[in-house]
Amino acid sequence: IFQTFFTTKSSGTGLGLPIVNQIVEAHDGRIDVKTEANRETVFSLSFPAAPEEMVNQTASDDVKKETHPAHG
Length: 72
Prior knowledge:
It contains two helices and two strands; from the N terminus they run H-E-E-H. By secondary structure, the protein is α+β, with helices and mostly antiparallel strands. It has one domain (16-67). Strands 1-2 form a two-stranded antiparallel sheet. It starts with 15 loop residues before the first helix and ends in a 5-residue tail after the last helix.
């Protein structure tokens, strides 16, 4: 289902899931797919947690942007 141009829909392009898969893999993530025949399909995406110092740095940068807007 992650193969480019694979589709089961008459108007589908077969690009949606391959693009999602590339993005998830680029972020060291994983996609799990569970299907119940003729019922439902569940996609679960998981990504590695960011190191705490990275999260804190991002939050700090956001505060700086909000409290010190650029003057031009």
